[in-house]
Amino acid sequence: KEAQKLGIAETDPSYDVEGKDTANKTILIANRVFNKTLGLADIMVEGITKVTPEDINTATKKGKVIKLIGTAEMIDGNIQLSVTPKAIDEKHPLALINGSQKAITYMTDTMGSITVTGGKSSPVGAAAAVLKDLINAFK
Length: 139
Description:
This protein is of the alpha+beta class.
């Protein structure tokens, strides 16, 4: 509720917790990176609703945190898209992202992994990003 009041969570929280928001962002990025036209039918989505306190405690004991991760990868010439909760090392840059912050990790053949982090979300920032995407789409 607090995140909704601040304008950083969807009005309908199921959009976030069921992984729909992450799925849409993953599709947008995959379409740009792979020069494709993929949609929701092309992505397997599992939100965080089935993550239990026991799952979180088990991960913590192993030095991990559970994060909802969107993945887009090329495997044998096919693009595989997914959104799932994953236990990642607590020192991984994605583990340090909280609240409305955003991050993406690119896995490259030549430079290994590259993680880029962004600032916090806001309604104005989201509107600016949509406008920028629309402008770029019609160039």
